[in-house]
Amino acid sequence: MKSNQETQLREIRSKKTPEQRRQDIIDASLKIFALKGYSGSSTAEIAHAAGVAEGTIFRHFTTKKDLLIAVLEPKVLDGLIQLDQEYRVDTPTDFFRRFLRNRLELLKENASLVRFMFAEAQYHPEVKEALFKEILGQGIGIIRPWFEKGVEQGDFRDLPFLPTMRSFMGMVMFYGLMGNVFQGFSPEKTIEEAADHILDLFLHGLALEDKK
What we know:
Number of helices: 10
Radius of gyration: 21 Å
Helix content: over 70%
Number of strands: 0
CATH topology of the largest domain: Tetracycline Repressor, domain 2
Distance between the termini: 84 Å
Order of helices and strands: HHHHHHHHHH
CATH class of the largest domain: Mainly Alpha
CATH superfamily of the largest domain: Tetracycline Repressor, domain 2
Largest sheet: none
CATH architecture of the largest domain: Orthogonal Bundle
């Protein structure tokens, strides 16, 4: 019985296109990386989980770091690229509201992956380079024009971009991760409500306007 199942699996795998095999490798890598970490995961283990020979991995990805980038890039960037393309007529404030909602959804749906990314980046230069140079660098390139547009239109203060975005994303990351770790920590009922709250706090702060 077992041999018949194995034969059927081999037949199914043999009919897959190279692109389908590539996606199988990415899906398996996502599970293994999140479970065992970057250094604790081997390409042999990933190949077994994907149902391919280990050499097949290296026909699609030159190095283990390239495989890591292929795993993380769509998770981190696809939603942001879609927002940038579909909502070009948005005001900068509306774009950042959509961006906030998208990032909070990302954190909610991929909490273990996000924890993996930042935990591993502390100890492994390859992960740090892949995340901050290869992936987050692209995200910054998408967000910066929206920030600069907001400054030009008088919606935002003319503050240094990178420190400002670091503070902004710090609020998002803390809110999203704390909300997932400690259920009930965040009183908002929906992601939309949470995004509006964070954006209002970031744009306007706590202080009341001076009354003269």
